[in-house]
Amino acid sequence: MSEKAKLRRKKAESGGQNRRKADADGSISRFVGERRTPLLAHVFAKSRSFLNAQPQKQPPKMQKAAADVGARAQNLYFCERVGRCLFAIYGFMSFTPAHFGQQFLLRIGRPLWRQAPLVVFMALLATASVLVVHRPHNQMGHYLLCWAIDLYFLALLVDNLPRRFARWVEIVVFVVAYGLSAVEVFLFLRFNLLLSPTVLTLLSETSADESSEFLSGMVRSNAFWQTVAIYLPILGTHLAVAGRTWRRFPAWWRKRRDKAGKNTPKTPDRHANSSPRLLQWGATAAMCALLLVGVPHWWGEKQALWRFVTNTQSRYAEKVPEIHFFAPHYRLLHATHLVRMSRGEVERLKNVMDTAHVDSVAPGTTDIVVVIGESYNKHHAGLYGYRKRTTPQLDRLRRKGELTVFDDVVTPWNLTSNAFKSFLSTHSADTPGTWADGVLFPLLFRRAGFKVAFVTNQFYKSVSQGSIDFNGSFFLNDPHLDSLCFDFRNTFRSRDDRSITQLLKDYTPGRRNLYLLHLWGQHMEYDRRYPAKFAFFRPEDYDRPDLDALQRQIIAHYDNATRYNDGVVADIMRYFRRRDVLLIYFADHGEEVYDDGVNRYGRVHSDMPSAEVIHHEYEVPFVIWTSPTFRRRHPEAAARIRAARHRPFSHDDLPHLLLGLAGIATPHYDPTRDPLTDAFIARKRWLREGKIDYDNSTRLTKKHAQ
């Protein structure tokens, strides 16, 4: 190696040593200077200089002095270590209460600016939900206050999680929030319905065929595209911010900005860092005020939610005020918990039915047929004065004296599953307890010697379906209840109600028989409930200037489905005509089809329905047809049926009516609830599990009460 190279190498090594020394001294100076300890700084600097001193060749006479210097350096190194400990103690003692309070307050507000995207977009989702759903005004303040505190604690949690884990938590939170908010807004716009046990029941009782029809109808609805228009801009902006695409997208603008910046003189701004600090303190002050005002309300809210989730009795849990479920995720929690508690009701029903018994049965061989319609608005039936001829065949049977039309019957529910509970159970809504405290009347018929057949076009028996399922009548698919109630179930369905009697081809009748037939009826979408060749009504047949062409078309579809259903029921009557039989036809609930100013079709699942909704969705058709053989053999029964056609009763009374017709004597039969007996007592008819008194409700107008 040349001398010049050796010299460069020596200079480089000495320069590196000097830089390392300077860096070390600088770090120590910064470490100490921040805490304003000059004395300890001097000690640390001296110790570091001795420790970094390079050994040099010295004369023998200076070796002793060098050894003394080395010993002194070791002592100073020890002093450095001791000084660091003293420094820590000094720093802790110099941490004043004012400084502690300042740092604590900044920590309170820190999640607001460190998790700004989370806070902003969750607030936007909540705002969209509030503006669309229209929460009651007197609850708005409570809603916003509790939701703001919930959002703050969520941001606080994410801010204190490890970075990588926090990112996945944010993704999960946003997926759930977007999904629940968009689904609820669509349900409200389309059905005036929020997330509730009703929604879960509707989803669970929907088959694959119904799901495909619902999805096709959903895409065609205005509510779907309104929901897309609300949430698509929010989601797009959120993805742009989250992916930082704003940095890459306007490349031309960035070049222009950089070019312009070269010619702009840069002047120091002594207030450059003041704005973020002011914003931080402003956010902190607002958050502190919000916590001081809202934490008492928020804590009471959480206590109420805790009492709800720890309650195991649904009839009490349902009485928790709705204000406590102010957000979509809370309403989903409420619905899920109520559904879970209903499983216990099924178990209680099993215990009651295992001990049910029949004392005696009257002689005779009469068969009874119960036909259950679907979504039938009686005010769209010619039998009940509708201006369109939607029931020509039943009208003909009525004129012949074979059909008795009851004009004052209501259903407690406008939901299939709950309607099934009401008319199958001997329990009544005006008595203490729930439907599970009664007995399902098919069991009583079987123990009286009847063979019971149940066929339905909406669902069928499946091994996978048990008590936790919420299809059409979920409890009927429980294996134990099924074995108690039925001798025969269909294993396949027919898309056309006119072929429902074909589902009985494998059934062997007994000496006495009870048939339960469940139809598709007028279940939406209405245009799929009848063949195209049976389209009798057209949109131009409706003189409704308040409706557009599509709405008039929907009414025409519904009336065509009603007229087709009329033929289905008449075909069933012809199927049993040659037998000694009595047939009862009624609907589980009604339907809204742009009537009385209600600008929608389907059903409104509100706990406080309007007079118009009650009129069209809770008042149902109820008719009894008797065969010629029945009228000849049982003239007294036929006379009692005709005499009772104006009596007011509910689905709750159906089990007692059937037990009385069959002559079954059992402790579960109450003659005061049998509309066909002289002992019948008209009672208040309660809707939605005792929440609405149908007969005395102030919501009913004089027109609707008639």
Describe the protein's architecture and organization:
The protein has helices at residues 3-33, 38-51, 63-93, 97-114, 116-133, 137-159, 163-191, 197-204, 208-220, 222-242, 251-262, 274-309, 314-317, 328-354, 392-399, 416-424, 441-447, 479-485, 549-575, 611-617, 628-633, 635-643, 654-662, 702-705; strands at 360-361, 367-373, 403-406, 409-410, 451-456, 488-489, 513-518, 581-587, 592-593, 601-602, 622-626, 649-650, 664-665, 686-687, 692-693. It contains 24 helices and 15 strands. The strands form five sheets. The chain has a seven-stranded mixed sheet. Residues 20-37, 245-250, 260-275, 463-473 and 698-706 have low confidence and may be disordered. It is elongated and about 140 Å long. Strand 9 and strand 10 form a beta hairpin. The relative contact order is 0.09. With 706 residues, it is α/β, with parallel strands linked by helices. The chain is 54% helix and 8% strand. Helix 4 (97-114) packs across helix 6, helix 7 runs antiparallel to helix 10 (222-242) and helix 8 crosses helix 14. It folds into three domains: 3-95, no CATH class; 103-245 and 278-355, no CATH class; 364-512 and 520-621 and 645-705, Alkaline Phosphatase, subunit A, CATH 3.40.720.10. The longest helix is centred in the middle third of the chain and has 36 residues, at 274-309.
- Radius of gyration, taken over Cα atoms and rounded to an integer in Å: 39 Å
Strand order of the largest sheet: 3-11-8-2-7-5-6
Can you tell me the residue ranges where pLDDT is under 50 for at least 5 consecutive residues? Answer: 20-37, 245-250, 260-275, 463-473, 698-706
CATH fold label of the largest domain: Alkaline Phosphatase, subunit A
Largest sheet, if any? 7 strands, mixed
Query: What's the shape?
Result: elongated
CATH level-four homologous superfamily name of the largest domain: Alkaline Phosphatase, subunit A
What structural class is derived from the secondary structure elements? alpha/beta
Task: Quickly name the level 1 CATH class of the largest domain.
Answer: Alpha Beta
How many domains? 3
The proportion of strand residues reads 5-15%
Q: Portion of residues in helices?
A: 40-55%
End-to-end distance, in Å? 118 Å
CATH architecture label name of the largest domain:
3-Layer(aba) Sandwich
Secondary structure tally, helices: 24
Count the strands? 15
Instruction: Give the mean pLDDT.
Output: 77
